[in-house]
Amino acid sequence: MDMNVLGEPVGHNMGIAWNQFIRSGKIAAGIVSPLVAKSWEKCANRNMNPTEGRGQIELGRNELKELLDKNERTIRIANPFMKNLYKTFSNTGFIIVLADIKGYILESFGDKERLKNAQYLNFVLGANWSEASVGTNAIGLALATGKPAQVSGWEHFSQPHHCWTCSAAPIFNRQGEMVAVLDISGPVHEKNSHTLGMVAAASEAISMQLKMQQKQNEMILVNKHLESIFNAMSDGVILIDKCGIIKDVNTITKQMLNRNDQNMIGCSIDTIFKEISPVTKEMLHHKKSYSGIKLSVPGSNGTNHCLASGEIVADDQGGVSGGVVILRPIQQGKSSANCYSAHNADFTFNDIIGTSSSMREVMGVAVLAAESSSNILLQGESGTGKELFAQAIHNQSARRKGPFIAVNCGAIPRELIGSELFGYEEGAFTGAKRGGRPGKFELAAGGTLFLDEIGDMPLEQQVSLLRVLQEKKINRIGSDKIIATDVRIICATNKNLLKEVRMGSFRQDLYYRLNVISVTIPPLRERGEDIILLLTSFLQNLSKGRKCEFDLEPEVLHCLKKYSWPGNVRELHNVAERIIHLVKGKTVSLVHLPADVYHCCEELTELPIQRSSFKEQRRRENEKTEREEIITLLHECKGNISHIAKRMGVARTTVYRKMQLYAIQY
């Protein structure tokens, strides 16, 4: 650094203390602050050269770009505060700097001449100014302590920094984590007692702004999730204010009524749903929810029948701020119990893809099982398609016209599984809905109840399930009334139930009650002949009806067959989605497969040609990318090789060599 530009180092006693430490390693008590003394000792223990002090430029162009992209939000928020600080310190020789939590400089503001002088010490974008890199300085101390710090003149460990005074303060996010450091550095003779306070105030303001934006982004994300759920619901949803005015409707409501939201939003619910007007008013005025009210509404294809229910929306004071009206579509001819939760089985055996011997065998067993009325246990690893088989069995059975109700026993909280399966009466427990609610056994009457992940069912509920299977009767929770059940049970699990029985986590008597007919679905790794068949089908379906024929390279075919597919058919479907998004033409190569899949190919010693072909392909793609980058930079930098080398993070000779290698002329 130019000593004349920045001024002579000040602080005679401090200078003597620094020289004493450098010569003997002794700290002058009462002169050197404990914080600075500790930092000096760490620098000495690292064998740092006190005559050096240049920031370490360790990042190439691409690494620097990644670092800036990673910290984009912090830089964007800090930028206006840094500009305001720069206005305060303009023409004083000070530089305003933002560094990340590792000490890399992300942004800087300063007079042109001062920034130019700072380059001598690599006090520039991408340079590392942590304590471990350049010795004692304000950025390093702020990072180490998490508190504002000021280091002036001789307090710096490195001699070239003695002409500087530095003040830095950390910046924190909403979680209380340090994300950056704000620093003001300038000539030591311009040192001001207010500088540290100003940088601390600015860093606090940046932290507040960062926390506010994080909160805002979280709220936006939550709203997007709620909006997605709102519009993805299979029931109609209408949001009303406390006066009964419609504020919003979801997609299914518009479809049911054959109206757009402009024809409903702002209207009173009385004008559209007269049948539920009285109970809706009572709900809003007296906080009385309602459910199970049959409603007929005109739609595009005639009259739609549904069950209406309503709940209030309370404000933070417990008052009524509005309400939610749910319209659950029902089909004519179905019992009112089934109207609560009908689920259709969409798949048949024709939808199950597979010509391998193992699949033909299991399909034969499943077809025979469908023709019986016995309980069925589907076994297989996750992702093999157990629910697909369950639906196909239902649609092949004599119960195909009845409901197909699916329950994931592993996804329902332990305390709720009883009410889900057997239902409850009004007032059975706190929060029980008015009128009660039927359980899945009632909803599946005349059809099939599919109990997925049966191995995760709690022991206490296994007892209740066994009793229902034996007696074919249920009682809703909170009721003495006996309800006869007419349900065919299909269970599925990815666990070894016999092993669970031996361990005591699954009842033996329930196991034999459920395992009347066992169907074991083979994992995908045992169905090598089906992999390409399945992938082709997935690609065609994901192409949304367009005729898309992909050309799979031999290495791809080999990898797909050799890979173990721990996620089974579900994982293969994910691979198909990846291919659809990544392949630009029709040729599918190894680079389009997930790393887990093609690494399996690289590890096979019998495929040296394929491995080398893959590596060569990756090399060609990297060279193509690099050539395009150089051509772009030649135009942007107007042929200035020095500028190009700086932006690429390489030497000028490297740029010339690569231009010759790629036959680039300018």
How would you sum up this structure in a few lines?
With 666 residues, the protein is of the alpha+beta class.
Architecture blueprint of SSEs:
Layout: H1 3-6, H2 12-24, H3 34-45, E1 56-57, H4 61-70, H5 72-89, E2 95-100, E3 105-110, H6 112-118, E4 127-128, H7 131-134, H8 138-145, E5 149-152, E6 164-172, E7 178-187, H9 195-232, E8 236-241, E9 246-249, H10 251-257, H11 269-272, H12 277-286, E10 290-299, E11 302-314, E12 320-330, H13 336-339, H14 357-370, E13 376-379, H15 386-396, E14 404-408, H16 417-422, E15 423-424, E16 437-438, H17 440-443, E17 448-452, H18 459-471, E18 473-475, E19 482-484, E20 488-493, H19 497-503, H20 508-514, E21 517-520, H21 528-542, E22 551-552, H22 554-562, H23 568-582, E23 587-588, H24 595-602, H25 608-636, H26 641-648, H27 652-661
Helix pairs in contact: 5-9, 14-15, 21-22, 21-23, 22-24, 26-27
